[in-house]
Specification:
Elements lengths: L1 H9 E2 L9 E9 L2 E8 L2 E4 L7 H10 L8 E5 L11 E3 L13 E3 L2 H7 L1 E5 L8 E6 L4 E5 L5 E5 L6 E7 L4 E6 L4 E6 L6 E5 L8 E5 L4 E6 L4 E6 L5 E5 L6 E7 L4 E6 L5 E6 L6 E4 L6 E7 L2 E6 L4 E6 L6 E4 L6 E7 L2 E6 L5 E5 L5 E4 L9 E5 L7
Parallel strand pairs: 2-11
Antiparallel strand pairs: 1-7, 2-3, 3-4, 3-8, 5-8, 6-7, 9-10, 9-32, 10-11, 12-13, 13-14, 14-15, 16-17, 17-18, 18-19, 20-21, 21-22, 22-23, 24-25, 25-26, 26-27, 28-29, 29-30, 30-31
GO cellular component, one term: membrane
Subcellular location: Membrane
InterPro entries: 6-blade_b-propeller_TolB-like, Cueball_EGF_LRP_Nidogen, LDLR_classB_rpt, SRCR, SRCR-like_dom_sf
Length: 387
């Protein structure tokens, strides 16, 4: 009877309305497998392998946007420091949507640290269908939109990743690496890395946009002061604009009108547009700008964030109706996007992604706080393939 009482009282629920959110990060050689890091508010821990099983792994995989079919609970034999291990272990039924719903059992952290940490193998089929892609400089992560948990896609073969996008036709992640001077791609699980374009020593390719319909990859290069396009299938490259550019950065496109739009944060900062072949170039905004880092095209409206003025503004693509949306809540917006009435911003001055409502009534952190991020992209099955 005493044993049963001890078991009963050691199975605790650590979730309440005031508890911080739970997130997981998956580290491994492939995006769908590795060891689990658990984030509880501002604290992060590894999880003890003692008692870890497929039921717990199923919940973790679900939080990462995978299905719970065919999951495996695995042991990572790396020895961890005692202070890195969580003093509890989850005891899930297996049908929970989040670890937050699972009871926990106390564990001996010293024994756990010597054993190793809990890991999972998730099924990568079907692929997740609603997610963000984030670049962290030396790594790329996929963030599940429902549970705001992450799995790393690329870590070992990158140096400084800035811009990032997704090709849903090939199911490929595409990025620029300004240290390796490359545009490269891999599949969503991190494999089949391919160099699309190797540039020269002065190259700094800060901007990238993939028109998957037309099979075109647009990029900006602030080192060579040019805007170019690469065929996504043949890798043939064409320079579109190479004059009167200072610091071109963000680039977006309209596949219907076949126009590109970009920001230039040089001494004479501008927002401009041109046709897909570089013709009919036109300045849209050339006043009241300092560092227009990022740009969004939503129908006939362009939105941009200025990292020096800490503002979000909008204007119609014909140059009329300029309006300030936000002048507070940001510290250094590097990249952002618009999704379902909210801006999601990678801000260098804040640990979390910033979520801002278009109606200016709501600003909140989104996802775990993970330090400096660069590019951000989003994909949802059945959604539009351009920002």
């Amino acid at each position: 009877m005493l044993f049963l009482m001890l078991v009963f009282f050691s199975n605790l629920y650590l979730n309440s309305a005031t508890d911080p959110e739970y997130y997981v990060i998956l580290y491994g050689g492939q995006a769908n497998q590795g060891f689990v890091q658990f984030i509880n508010g501002s604290d992060s821990h590894f999880l003890c392998y003692d008692g870890w099983d497929e039921r717990d792994a199923a919940v973790v995989c679900r939080m990462l946007g995978y299905t719970s079919d065919g999951v495996a609970a695995v042991l990572n034999i790396t020895t961890f420091f005692t202070e890195e291990m969580w003093s509890y272990q989850f005891d899930c039924v297996g049908n929970e949507t989040s670890l937050r719903s699972c009871p926990v059992v106390e564990v001996n952290v010293t024994e756990c640290a010597n054993q190793g940490a809990s890991g999972v193998i998730c099924s990568n089929n079907p692929i997740p269908d609603d997610f963000f892609l984030l670049s962290f400089g030396t790594s790329i992560a996929r963030l599940d939109r429902s549970y705001e948990s992450l799995t790393l896609i690329q870590t070992d073969s990158t140096r400084k990743i800035i811009a990032i996008d997704y090709d849903p036709i090939e199911q490929s992640v595409i990025w620029t690496d300004v240290n390796l001077k490359q545009i490269a791609k891999c599949n969503l699980n991190g494999g089949q890395k391919t160099i699309i374009f190797q540039s020269g020593s002065d190259s700094v390719m800060d901007g990238l946009a993939v028109d998957s319909w037309s099979r075109l990859i647009f990029y900006t290069d602030t080192g060579y002061d040019e805007i170019g396009v690469i065929n996504a299938d043949t890798f043939i490259r064409t320079v579109l604009v190479s004059s009167s550019l200072e610091e071109p950065r963000k680039i977006v496109f309209d596949p219907y009108t076949r126009e590109i739009f970009w920001t230039d944060w040089g001494a004479n900062a501008t927002i401009e547009r041109a046709k897909y072949d570089g013709s009919d170039r036109e300045v849209i905004v050339n006043t009241g700008l300092i560092w227009p880092n990022s740009l969004i095209l939503d129908g006939d409206i362009l939105y941009w964030c200025d990292a020096s003025l800490d503002k979000i503004e909008r204007i119609y693509r014909n140059g009329t109706g300029r309006t300030e949306i936000y002048s507070s809540g940001l510290a250094h917006c590097f990249d952002f996007l618009l999704l379902d009435g909210y801006f999601y911003c990678n801000d260098w001055g804040l640990l979390n992604i910033v979520k801002l409502s278009m109606d200016r009534n709501e600003t909140s952190p989104y996802g775990p706080g993970l330090g400096r991020r660069y590019g951000i992209a989003h994909y949802r099955k059945g959604g539009m393939y351009f920002n």
